[in-house]
Design brief:
The chain is an alpha+beta fold. It has a domain of 57 residues. It has two helices and three strands. Strands 1-2-3 form a three-stranded antiparallel beta sheet, with no helix packed on it.
């Protein structure tokens, strides 16, 4: 492994602005939001960055039985080929 592959930078990211704007709501479904985030980076690397993404969010928290159903599935034989490290059980929140 070369010396450059072993190096890393240290720093902090601070959210300067977080601006969500709903642009569509489906009756009984998720709210779609356009989110604009501005960040500042300090430390070994300094600067500013902009993130722009779309989020689909339901208007309620998940119920215990909804989460338990996924846990039971993952503990069973039918889930034996699932290899993901992060499995989101969030009702459609991206």
């Amino acid at each position: 492994m070369s010396d450059t592959a072993k190096r890393h930078a240290r720093g902090r990211i601070a959210v300067a602005s977080y601006e969500p704007k709903a642009f569509d709501e489906v009756p009984g479904g998720p709210t779609l939001s356009d989110i604009h985030v501005t960040e500042t980076f300090s430390g070994d690397i300094e600067g500013e960055g902009v993130v722009h993404f779309v989020q689909a969010a339901l208007k309620r928290l998940g119920h215990v039985d909804e989460i338990a159903n996924v846990v039971a599935f993952l503990a069973g034989d039918e889930a034996r080929w699932i290899t993901g490290r992060n499995i989101r059980v969030n009702g459609g929140t991206v």
